[in-house]
Each structure stands twice: as structure tokens, then as C-alpha cells.
Design brief:
This protein is α+β, with helices and mostly antiparallel strands. 21% of the residues lie in helices and 25% in strands. The chain has five helices and eight strands, in the order H-H-E-E-E-E-H-E-E-E-E-H-H. The longest helix is centred in the last third of the chain and has 17 residues. The termini are far apart.
Length: 209
């Protein structure tokens, strides 16, 4: 296998999987791989995605200090700056009773990543990868949420409500870092809207908090 031969010259771990169908869909998914993943994978500085059609992706995430990170799309020569914060959370016994062994840990990490360049797009909930649920609280709210079997949406319950409380704390604690001397009121852009039509229970719960 010429591909494995080349990989074995430098790779520490190689995973080879048989792909019997839908190779085109997989390539499309890889082509849309969210580079913001690197903001939460703190042990990874650079990510290269090599596709058979030659449309390779190259991302790099660099720690700028004081909670700020620069995320660069090397292929497009474009970069963005982010504020990233993490906090530990210890779920209650009632919360752990709702979830399976896969995420039933005594301590989990809840993370918040806020784009410093553009704060107008809707916030997203991530379970290490993007979910379909959005929120008017700008930024990415990443945690090992309790989600549905399709891995697309948050489920209601104590486990997620406790994480949302941590998300609210992270957001409030981050506000002093989200404004600047040029735009001293910019932190208001990250706060959730007070609309009456929340797109999901998590957005409503977070807004109320």
C-alpha cells in the first residue's frame, strides 16, 4: 500500500478503514471540516486533511497568550482570533443518572470560544463537533452534552441544564476580555438576545440564566 508506506515514514499512529460506499460524501464532509475543532484540541497545533481530489486543507492554531488563539487557514492564507476559556464541571448524581457510561464521568470540561473578529453570527452548541442547535449567545459552547442518537441536537434534562449553568458562568467571566479600547461596548454583542422565540430549549434556558 503506497499510502501506508508514505505515512509510516512519519506517522506515530495510522488507522486504516475499509470504505465500501459513499466515498464522495465522505470527501465532501472532510472538505467542510470545521477548523474551530483545533480550539478545543489543545494538544494539536496543526491539522492537515489530504483528499484524493487534491483539495487539501491545512489549519494551524497558535496560542497568543492570555486566553487568545490565532486560527489560520494556511491554504487560504486567512486567519481569525479567538478568546477560549475552559472550566471543569462535576455533574451531580441526578445528572449522571440520565446518561450512559460513555459520558458519565465524575468531572468533565466545559469550553467557550468567542470570535474576536466577528461577533454577529449565531452561537453554536458543539459536542466536540457542531450540533444543529444554535443560540443567540455568540461563540461556540463545547461540552460532552447529552445528545440524541443522531448526534445532532441537545436533549432536555438535568445533565445539560447543569452544563448550561457552567456555560453562562464562562460567558459572563469572559465578557471583560471581549471588548477593546477601540470598541469598549463590543462585549454586548456576545450576550444572548431576549427574544420570545427561542430556537430550542438550551437557548431559552441560557438566555434566562
Amino acid at each position: 500500500d503506497p499510502v501506508l508506506t508514505e505515512l509510516s515514514k512519519w506517522a506515530e499512529t495510522i488507522v486504516k478503514l475499509p470504505l465500501a460506499r459513499e466515498s464522495e460524501r465522505l470527501a465532501n464532509d472532510l472538505n467542510r471540516f470545521p477548523p474551530e475543532f483545533l480550539l478545543f484540541a489543545r494538544a494539536v497545533e496543526r491539522l492537515d486533511v489530504n483528499l484524493p481530489n487534491g483539495s487539501d486543507l491545512h489549519y494551524r492554531c497558535v496560542d497568543m497568550g492570555d486566553g487568545k488563539w490565532r486560527l489560520t487557514d494556511l491554504a487560504a492564507d486567512a486567519s481569525s482570533e479567538w478568546w477560549v476559556a475552559h472550566t471543569p464541571h462535576t455533574p451531580s448524581e441526578a445528572a449522571l443518572a440520565e446518561v450512559g457510561e460513555t459520558i458519565a464521568r465524575r468531572e468533565i470540561t466545559v469550553s467557550y470560544a468567542a470570535p474576536l473578529d466577528e461577533a454577529q453570527t449565531l452561537g453554536r452548541f458543539w459536542a466536540h463537533f457542531p450540533l444543529q442547535d444554535v443560540t443567540s449567545a455568540r461563540g461556540i459552547h463545547n461540552a460532552p452534552w447529552r445528545i440524541n442518537d443522531d448526534r445532532t441536537n441537545l436533549l432536555e434534562g438535568v445533565f445539560n441544564e447543569e452544563i448550561l449553568e457552567k456555560v453562562a458562568e464562562l460567558l459572563v467571566d469572559s465578557l471583560p476580555h471581549l471588548s477593546s479600547s477601540e470598541d469598549p461596548a463590543k462585549h454586548f454583542d456576545y450576550l444572548p438576545a431576549r427574544g420570545r422565540e427561542a430556537p430550542n430549549f438550551a437557548d431559552k434556558f441560557l438566555t434566562e440564566l
